[in-house]
Structure formats: structure tokens, C-alpha cells
Amino acid sequence: MVTIKEIAQAANVSPTTVSLILNRKSKERKISPLTEKRVLEIAERMGYLPNLQAVGLKKAGSLFAHRILIFWVADSRAQVMMRFFRGIEENIENNHLPYEVLLQSYRPGQLQHAMRNELLLSCHGIIVCNPSESDMEFLDGSNFPRPLILYNRYSDKYSCVVMDDRTIGSLPAEIFASHGRKHPALITSPPTFNGMNIRQNLFAYTCQSLGMREAEIYRTDSSPRSSYEATLRLLQERPETDCIFYLREELALGALRAFLEKGIRFPNDMELIAVGDSSLGISEVSSPTLSVVHLPLEQAASKIIGLFNRHLYTPSCPPASTVVSVNYVPRESCPAYTPHEDCIT
User: With 0-12 CB in 10 A as exposed, 13-18 as middle and 19+ as buried, what is 87?
Assistant: First the structure.
């Protein structure tokens, strides 16, 4: 590891001068801009990394606080962030961990611009949530000065925590089949990561495996209004449809008015299940109340903190993957699950 003394020798200045520059005290100590520029360029060229015990620390009792930097995508999934962030904070508080958390948003496909080097060097660990395929290409082709953990993305290079996408896709089909449904449909927004494709494909495959008709797939954007319009179109074009799986909770909530307008009753005429990722709690009070495959985001966040502990205190440990189990929450839109004798496991 490059030291301040080695930088000082290369820049022909004192170690004290290098330390002041690296700690952003050049103006305070009246160090010339040219000297500052030369030292910073040499430090970067030599690959200098600040000592983790000296980066952005504050006292937490008698312990130092480690800073965790979370990158969260700035799109319609922002509402989900509150559940995830709450899970992070609860784990830190319940276990009395000496951590502080900073949140940095980024636009889909623009992660590389958000991950500025000076920002990364100011923390002890990085959590990247929901990167797009192009963002994953950037991550896979990069090396970072701090441990990096992925949420909801698969990786051979980085430790990751992912939801059980296979069960998310197959379980609704098994539930519909157990109730004797025959004409399934799926409504989804454009896939933002490969897990959505897994969910869609497993739903379609499981439907056919259990003797149901081939699932009709309707695609819409992520707005409730578009889901309402897509659902109306489905009901007009495929009136025999008797069960629908929505890959996002807000899509199902946006569609409820379409069923009201068509006079469709739940669960007699139709069954609905959605991926339960929302933090708003509307599904519990909607009409009908919405059955969901619940995503335990708080549990996923807690597992990420466990991985962070591992990488922080054992830097040489290999990447690890954790799959978080999901569960079905039956409500008025679809009854409880009665296992079908032919259901695949």
C-alpha cells in the first residue's frame, strides 16, 4: 500500500504537506495550488488509498463509525427504498453497530457517473441497488477501492443478496392452478434486470406445466394509468382470462378500476396476485384487498449488513450470494394456497 511518505518523496515535499493536502487543508495552510495539484496527481498515479480508519469517522461511544454508501436507482422503485433503508437502519440499531449510512441516487444506466472516485474513497463500503444491465457491465469491468455488495442482482464478482426470483415466478402459477384456473395472464412493465425475465418465464412455464393455457403476456410502462389501460385491453381481447399475475404491485393497484368498470367479482370471476414490493400499504386496504407474493426487503437489507461486516473485517474473503425467501399473503383478490398435486418444487 502506498504511504504518505512515499508520495512526499516523489513530490519532493514533506510528509506533513502531503497530509495537509490529502485532508483538504491546502487553503487553510496556504499551500500553493500548483503544489496541491502536483501532490494529488502523484497520489492518484501511485494508487494511494486513505486508511479506512481515517476516512469520515465519528465517535459512536468508544467505537469508530464506518460509513456505508448506498447507491439507489432514481426511478419508480424509489418508494421501495424506504423499506430497504429502514431494514438497514434497524439492523444497525438493534445490533449496536458503529455504522453511518449515506444515500446516493443515480439514473438507470448512469451509475458510472455517480460513482465518483472521491465519493468512494470517503466511505468504507459500497452497496449498489438495482443496477441496470449496462450498469452491471460497468461494475463487472471495474475494480473499486472499497468492498462492494449488490442488492437484487446476480454476480460472480461481487457478494450479492437477491430475492428468490424462481419462486416469485412459479408460486402464483401454482396458486392459480390449485384453484382450478385455466386462462392465465401476466402484466409487466419493461424488465429492468434479468430477475424480471426469470419471474416472467417461470410463471409462463409453470402455468403450462400444470395444465393451464399458455399465459397471455401484456407489457406496459410502470405507471398505474398504463396498467389500467393494458388491463382493459386484456379483458376486451381475452375475456376468458380468469387469473392475472402483475409483476409489480403498483401495476395491480392501477388496474383495479378496470375490473370495477367491467363488473368483475373477486375471487369468483377473477383472481389477482402481484409482486408485493410497495412500502405504501395500499394493498391491505384496496378494494379488493390485493394478494401478494411478499418481498421481505427489510430481511434482505439485514443480510446485506451481515455481508458488509464480513467484508469489512475479512477483506480477503471470497464473494458470497444469499437468496432471500418470499412468502404468499392471501387477501380478497385470491384465496389461500391449496397445493396442487402436480405442482413442481
Answer: buried
